[in-house]
């Protein structure tokens, strides 16, 4: 089973200058697979007081979280990937609606996939995930599974290109192979549950960096160069330097890199981190967000609840760099230097 430790969550809504705070909080709850909290927040939002995009998210999320309404099943003769995706969506929906049943729903997903494969002995995800992935690949599709945050995930795409890239990080430049993925049938559970508002922007693996092209308005702006490229290159460099680093620590360092480099996206990035905070190390992004914000406040000599958006960018950049350098100094000698 592949764990997606190195993910860049890129909010599509972040391209707009103002985001309703309650919508941001509800999207954060969905990203933590906390359906009950998201549902309570969404229900309290009057549709008439929202902009068109926020109202569309509210309506779509309420439908996703409605226990009565189920995603329409594909035809029995639909491609295997389409039927497998339907099984995953049933699981995502149920696991987010009722977090206490998450483990049982994951097992039920394995049973559904085993049935689709005609192999009833595949009765959990440890057994069913790899054969599912192999079947999709055999039919010509690109696929990535594993776990993103709290849920098993499924990415499906049809087109992939490659190129080399070099990125300047706070601790030096790094080169990597960049895989550009496009024409998606599924961008994963976080994108589906938030109705396309946010989700995974890409990930890092030993062979290079994978970018979900439709997650970005441009591959030339700061959203891409910092939120994806610098973030994931930091993962790439850290995995090479210290094999086996816990997922939340990878995220902690990559998020510090974002804040050290962000200019036009700095305020938005701080807002996104603040809206998705948690205390569960298994949810690496939310756990790292809280610790990044706490570490910066401490380094800047601020109160625990201080508003970081009021701090001059130059001070935030310096604090993020200093925190990253301090974290590096506490680690063993990088593997490449031994």
Overview of this protein structure:
48% of the residues lie in helices and 15% in strands. It is an alpha+beta fold and 338 residues long. It has one domain. The strands form two sheets. The chain has a six-stranded mixed sheet, sandwiched between helices. Helix 8 crosses helix 9. It starts with 6 loop residues before the first strand and ends in a 9-residue tail after the last helix.
Shape: globular
Percent of residues in helices comes to 40-55%
| Assembly category | single chain
Output the helix-strand order: EHHHHHHEEEEEHEEHHHHH
In terms of DSSP E residues, the strand content is 15-25%
Output the radius of gyration: 20 Å
Alpha plus pi helix count: 12
Low-confidence stretches: 1-7, 11-17
Structural class: alpha+beta
The strands making up the biggest β-sheet line up spatially as 1-7-8-6-5-2
End-to-end Cα distance:
30 Å
